[in-house]
Structure prediction request, 616 residues.
Amino acid sequence: MTENNIENIKSQMRRGVLEYCILSVLDKNDAYASELINKLKDAHIIVVEGTLYPLLTRQKNQGLLAYRWEESTQGPPRKYYTLTDKGREVLQEMDKAWKEIVETLDILRK
Amino acid sequence: MKKVIKVSINKMPFTLAEDAFNVLKVYLDHLHRYYAGKEGGSEIVDGIEERIAELLGERTGPGARVVSKADVDAVLDIMGPPEVIEEEGGDPSGDAFTGSPLPKAAKRLYRDVDHKVIGGVCSGLAAYFNIEVVLIRILFAVLFFVPSGIHVFSNMHHWGPLVFNFPWIFVVIYVILWIVIPPARSVEEKYAMRGAPLSARGVQHSAPSHAPRYRYESRSGHNEGNRGWYVLGRVVAVIVGLFFLVTSTAVLISLIVAFTATGFFLNVIPTALPDLVSITVNPFLFKLFLTLVLLIPVIGFIHLGSVLVFNIKGQKWIGPTLFFTWLVSFIGFLVLCSFNFGNFRHDARFQETVPLELTSDTLYVEFEADNDFLFERYWLEANNSHYNLGWLEGKREDLNLVFFPHLTLVRQSNEEIPSLLVKSHSFGSSEHRAELEAEATKPDFRLDGNVLTLNAVEVNREDPWRGNTGSLRLYLPSDQVVIVRKPVYHEFGVSRSRKVNIIRSE
Prediction:
């Protein structure tokens, strides 16, 4: 298997869970885009920041997220993202699915 | 001094270096184009712009220094290539985005000056046809050294096959391509050259930059290969350049000498010829065009040679300017030439036979010119039946050429009457003019006792040359002794044959 292929699979895995990660971060606190990016970066889940924006918009369009504008002490007003009720439901679904995947791997590894 | 551009990104003011601005503009334009008209599209681009502003702000700090291209490159690296961002939008379920493919930029032929070895022609062709540049370079490298004879078979049998042998034809083709194909300098041109959709990597490659070459090579992973090609290309360039320099300098020197010093290489100054040949147009324009047509290619090749040898960046206006001036002069020259045919449209012959009364068994022939052989050069071809004296350059102050009739000796029986056949041929703007001209320029002769004097036809500014030629045929019995006394002694049937080109008379 070439290095390229491995990279490809890894990025597919990351992409698969990125939406789940966004919902997870917002479940605790509302956040504006840069904050969200920093958290995701700290957790090594995103490499390319630009990809976050289409995802956020998609999740907003699916009704999982909403946002509000808040004045900032420095610079222009910021867009704070927050989870909707539907978003919370989807997150619970995803939590369940994630646990199942982890269990599957555990079983397979025994 | 460096040009900077003030912009507002997400309502934050920034001062960008020009190259930085170009890179950023292409990046954002691309995203704007992609997301235009898509649901939530402007939101995405606004978000990205906001983040770019934030990251740039972090890098430049509170001092708000000028944003360099390196800053923008770093920030765009963090943001990621546009197509990766766009891919993210392509939802499999297709509920939000059904990202239509980017309209492909029209592909255009440019020279890839960022990856040039000589002029960027090969790399530009490779980009245009989307083939490996190595293949094109090999092809050109081989063709450069292939002498190519172009055979044109003429159906005029007495001419035989015409062969134009042009050894450096592919070098010339390369040079023409170099002149004709524009260089890809702006970011837009670089994209049009590849016809490829924009990518962040592409942005970094094609942005106008003076980044060292290794940067591109290390990224493309052909470092060693490219280096080799570069060296080989430079070697070829220096060889070809030296060839151009040496030959064109030699040609330039000869042209200058030929044009200024009378008869060092030629017997007449080329630019003086229009004065002596009957032309119907302004001789100044004629001379000007002739000079330019001859000199411009030489100057062009000297310039090109120095660019190739010293690897300097030639001023981009020089090539096109020279080429255009040359083209105009050449067309002008052709147009003037076609007008000039006016005096050469018709031709006519004149001939008459004059009986000779011989008083002695020896006939002396003398050639005579007005300035009586104050010439420096001539040519002569003499044998048992011919005495052809070539044209001479008179020593008079004003320009003049001297033509002598060709003399032929024909032996006949003693019963036939000795005679002289006078023939001339000339051109004119009409049949009538040609006839008059032919008669007027018939070889002039005088028989005085046993001395036949032949006069030259002189050509000067007042009486220019109209393509007239004259000849004389002597019909004499076989025992008649014929001796040319002047200017070079020759006894027909006794003196040995000789052919003399340009000698200096004492």
Observations:
- The mean pLDDT of chain A is 86.
- The longest helix of chain A spans residues 3-28.
- The first strand of chain A starts at residue 31 and ends at 32.
- Chain A touches chain B at residues 15, 33-34, 37, 47-58, 60-62, 75-76, 79 (CB under 8 Å).
